[in-house]
Design a protein that fits this description.
It contains eight helices and nine strands. With about 230 residues, the protein is α/β, with parallel strands linked by helices. The strands form two sheets. A seven-stranded mixed sheet has the order 3-6-2-7-1-8-9, with helices on both faces. About 35% of the residues are buried.
């Protein structure tokens, strides 16, 4: 048995400003920070063996703030090698990883960052006010861009395209660790998590359009012998 813990980032600065964010790299608001911490308290007692987050700061902040409440006693360590070329006294050059941690590995909680877990890229809408965009293009057109499965905004991604990058990463980097018995914490975004939940729960294209992923709220699944079960009381 293993656990998959999903959490959408807390409220970002552009969530609060009602702007399309996508891949624009904005941080959390004070409310978002509180949401991440509260979400972390809810999962503080659950074992976590590995963490995956996106390359966007709002998801990374959420992951670290949530983990600050965890009772496991491990230190989150981002797994991004810092490779440096060094030349010794003999003139020989070697490449070394300055981020390498020596000593017992059981005190380290590995954190992996992947762009495949990033939010849907909103293309030409990124940075625009949502209400002003509705007034310009009409409610129905903006609804299609935001909520249809396979129609992307101009020069952006649909949920279908988001799933095409998110799910291969989930299958190759996360699912094998779950099947090995590890508990995995994923801090990501509304649309990247919608694609994962759609796959886990077998939702249709129509059903996923009504799926809302609240900010800073943990969603927990149990995986036993390849089968999924959502846990509401954890």
């Amino acid at each position: 048995m293993s656990l998959l813990i999903l959490m959408r980032h807390g409220q970002s600065v552009w969530n609060a400003a009602n702007l399309f964010t996508g891949w624009v790299n904005v941080p959390l608001t004070p409310k978002g920070i509180d949401e991440a911490i509260e979400g972390g308290r809810k999962i503080a007692h659950l074992g976590i063996d590995e963490v995956h987050t996106s390359t966007l700061i709002r998801a990374q902040m959420t992951a670290m703030l949530a983990l600050s409440e965890h009772t496991g006693g491990k230190t989150p360590v981002v797994q991004t090698p810092q490779m440096v070329d060094l030349t010794d006294e003999s003139g020989e050059t070697s490449t070394v990883d300055w981020s390498k941690a020596n000593g017992p590995s059981e005190h380290i909680l590995p954190v992996f960052m992947a762009s495949q877990l990033n939010e849907r890229m909103y293309g030409d809408l990124q940075g625009l006010n949502k209400q002003e965009t509705r007034e310009k293009y009409g409610d129905e057109q903006v609804k299609i861009w935001r909520r249809s499965y396979d129609v992307p905004p101009p020069n952006g991604e649909s949920l279908e395209l988001t799933a095409k990058r998110t799910l291969p990463y989930f299958s190759s980097a996360i699912l094998p660790q779950l099947d090995a018995g590890k508990n995995i914490f994923v801090a990501a975004h509304g649309n990247s998590l919608r694609s994962v939940i759609m796959d886990i729960e077998g939702l249709s294209r129509e059903e996923v359009l009504g799926l809302e992923v609240p900010t800073g709220t943990p969603i927990v699944y149990e995986r036993i012998e390849g089968n999924w079960k959502r846990i509401d009381n954890f």
